[in-house]
């Protein structure tokens, strides 16, 4: 009897925690699936307190290697930033207020890719700082990370006037900068937010609704596709789908961290 009570208490704690996360993320409905082997492992405490485990270096030597690698990547990103600042390949530099290069941790294991700066981003020179950005921050926090743990960049580095869609020629001219950012950061997992990021990274014309929910391959890096936060502001019920996608990202990051620490 005591065992049953303990199990029930565990389940209640776990359900409460998940409701907290989902509320924080702005979700007010949940998909209820039939119990199966996978989710019955809740009883074994396997799904409790799920968040991305942050990797800590074991020895002082590891810490030193980590620090010098971080310094190397930060320097490379800064050099690239300076190069992009002088870019006149398309006319967007004439109408922008600020270049929006990218922001975050040069050692990030997770990198988000959006479309292009909007008005707030253009004014502040930082990606995803407007309403959609606040929602992206909640999405990041919902999987147990901070904004400063990840790296965030866009396909275009300058705001298209009036927030119009990026033109194909603008994408072609700007994409080498994003590719270099990905090469420098070498994230373990990429997350493409919305149509333009997904179609550009994966070189496809498939709609985001078809691409989302599974990992694709970007040059050997698993790339999740999910809905853009600005779309979610207009279509709140689809937050549930983004939450499903982000749980897959969280679980893959944890799995990859497990493999690394045992190897
Ligand atoms: N939408 C984007 O795609 N990127 C931003 O930086 C802001 C809004």
Give a verbal description of the structure.
With 263 residues, the chain is α/β, with parallel strands linked by helices. The chain has a single domain (70-262), classed as 3-Layer(aba) Sandwich (Uracil-DNA Glycosylase, subunit E). Helices cover 52% and strands 10% of the residues. The chain has eleven helices and six strands. The protein has helices spanning 2-24, 37-40, 60-85, 92-95, 119-124, 131-142, 168-185, 194-202, 208-211, 229-234, 239-262, and strands spanning 103-104, 110-114, 151-154, 189-193, 215-218, 221-226. A six-stranded mixed sheet has the order 1-3-2-4-6-5, sandwiched between helices. A hairpin with a 2-residue loop joins β5 and β6 (221-226). α3 (60-85) packs antiparallel against α7. The longest helix is centred in the first third of the chain and has 26 residues, at 60-85. The chain is globular, with a radius of gyration of 20 Å. Uracil (URA) is lined by residues 114-118, 121, 127-128, 132-133, 154, 230.
């Amino acid at each position: 009897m005591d065992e049953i009570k303990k199990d029930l208490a565990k389940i209640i704690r776990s359900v409460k925690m998940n409701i907290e996360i989902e509320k924080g993320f702005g979700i007010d409905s949940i998909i209820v699936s039939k119990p199966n082997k996978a989710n019955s492992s809740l009883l074994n405490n396997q799904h409790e307190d799920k968040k991305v485990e942050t990797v800590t270096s074991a020895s002082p030597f590891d810490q030193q290697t980590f620090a010098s690698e971080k310094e190397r990547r930060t320097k490379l990103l800064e050099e690239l930033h300076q190069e992009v600042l002088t870019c006149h390949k398309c006319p967007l530099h004439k109408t922008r207020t600020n270049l929006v290069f990218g922001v975050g941790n040069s050692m990030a294991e997770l990198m988000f890719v959006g479309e292009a700066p909007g008005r707030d981003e253009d004014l502040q020179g930082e990606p995803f700082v407007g309403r959609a950005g606040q929602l992206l921050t909640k999405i990041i926090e919902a999987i147990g990370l901070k904004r400063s743990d990840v790296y965030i960049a866009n396909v275009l580095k300058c705001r298209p006037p009036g927030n119009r869609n990026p033109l194909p020629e603008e994408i072609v001219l700007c994409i080498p900068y994003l590719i270099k950012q990905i090469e420098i950061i070498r994230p373990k997992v990429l997350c493409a937010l919305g149509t333009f990021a997904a179609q550009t990274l994966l070189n496809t014309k498939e709609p985001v609704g078809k691409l989302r929910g599974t990992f694709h391959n970007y040059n050997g890096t698993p790339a999740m596709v999910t809905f853009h936060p600005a779309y979610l502001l207009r279509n709140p019920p689809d937050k549930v789908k983004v939450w499903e996608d982000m749980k897959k990202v969280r679980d893959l990051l944890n799995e990859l961290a497990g493999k690394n620490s045992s190897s």
